[in-house]
Amino acid sequence: DTGVSQDPRHKITKRGQNVTFRCDPISEHNRLYWYRQTLGQGPEFLTYFQNEAQLEKSRLLSDRFSAERPKGSFSTLEIQRTEQGDSAMYLCASSLSFGSSGETQYFGPGTRLLVL
Amino acid sequence: GDSVTQMEGPVTLSEEAFLTINCTYTATGYPSLFWYVQYPGEGLQLLLKDTKADDKGSNKGFEATYRKETTSFHLEKGSVQVSDSAVYFCALDHTGNQFYFGTGTSLTVIP
Fold first, then answer.
1. Cα–Cα distance between A26 and A32 in angstroms, integer?
2. Is B46 close to A104, i.e. CB distance below 8 A?
3. CA nearest A96 in B: which residue?
4. Residue among B43, B95, B104 whose CB faces A107 most closely
């Protein structure tokens, strides 16, 4: 078990550019979650996948954000036309879900995005 | 909508002091409740959880009791150590589809 990994760990970009982050979950986990965390705040839920299906999206996920998990393994989160307000830590988590609440999520180290 | 309200920090305690970090929630029904911890330089990790009202979760000397009547899930530890210095997050999972975290409480334990 190598844990959840995220790449890159840091990203600096200019406003208006597109960025893409990758998350590799724990291998047997069927659920994958994306969160955004700003300084002094807790993680804010963005979206999650059950295998390759995207089942829930927060209203925080504007149309500039898109996430994919094409083969039910790794996932990518893309932000188009970045804005300074997108600067945050983007967290990925995974879990082994049997369809109920209360399952433990395992978090990656995060990707810190800075938009200049 | 569902939400979690957590005691603001930062909290500074001397070693062996008693710790309480308050957490209350707003949700219908019976959500699952969690405490996650983030040690310096590390990712969030589960500390403990409860999925049923009146259950008491415990781990590493920390305890939290799910109290439906007060919609609370306060975190306690009888004797903190320097190694407990971290940020603690209370979280809620209501339906298995929506997840809410508190703002986090920073704890510093001094020797």
1. 9
2. yes
3. B96
4. B43
Burial environment of residue A13 by CB neighbours within 10 A (0 to 12, 13 to 18, 19 or more): middle
Partners of A33 on chain B (C-beta within 8 Å) are 99
Tokens of B50: 């409860």
Closest CA–CA distance from residue A106 to any residue of chain B (Å): 6
Contact A44, A111 (CB under 8 A): no
Nearest to A104 by CA among B54, B103, B49, B26: B49
Give the pLDDT of chain A (116 residues) as one tens digit per residue: 579 999 999 999 999 999 999 999 999 999 999 999 998 899 999 999 999 999 888 878 889 999 999 988 999 999 999 999 999 999 999 999 887 777 889 999 999 999 99
Distance between CA A95 and CA B32 in Å, rounded?
Answer: 15
